[in-house]
Amino acid sequence: MSNDASDRTVTSGGQSFEFDLEISELSALVSGCAIALFDADGCVTAWNAGARRLTGYDAETIVGEHYQSLFPTDARDAGRPDRLLERTRAEGTVEADGWRLGDGGSRLWVCESIATIHADGSVGVPVESTADLDGYLWVVRNRTDDHERERELCEEKAFTESVLKAQPDLLYAYDTEGELIQWNDQFERVTGYDPATTGDIDPLTFIAPEDRDLLGKAIERILEDGERITAEGRVLTTDDDRLPYEFNSARIVDDGDVLGFTGIGRDISARKTRERELERLERLNAAIRAIDDTMVTADSRDEIEAAIVETFAADDAYRFGVIGRARGVATGEGYSWEPTAWSGIDATAAAVCSSFVAPPTDADGESALETRTVQRYRSLRESPIEQWRRHAREHDYGSIAVVPISASSTPLGALVIGTDEPSAFADREQQVLQEFGGTVGHAINAMAVRRLLYQDTVVELEFESTDRGDACIRLSDDLGCKLSVDHALPLSGEVFIYYLTASGVDPDRVCDRARDDEAITDFRLIDASDDESYCECVVRNATIAETFAGYGARLQSKTVRDGVARLTVQTSSDVALHEFVDTITSAYPDSRLRSKRTVERPVKTRGDFRRTVESLLTDKQRIALEAAYHGGYFEWPTRHSNASEIADRLGIARQTFHQHLRVAQAKLLSAYFGDTD
Question: Residue 187's CB: how many other CB atoms inside 10 A?
Answer without folding.
Answer: 21
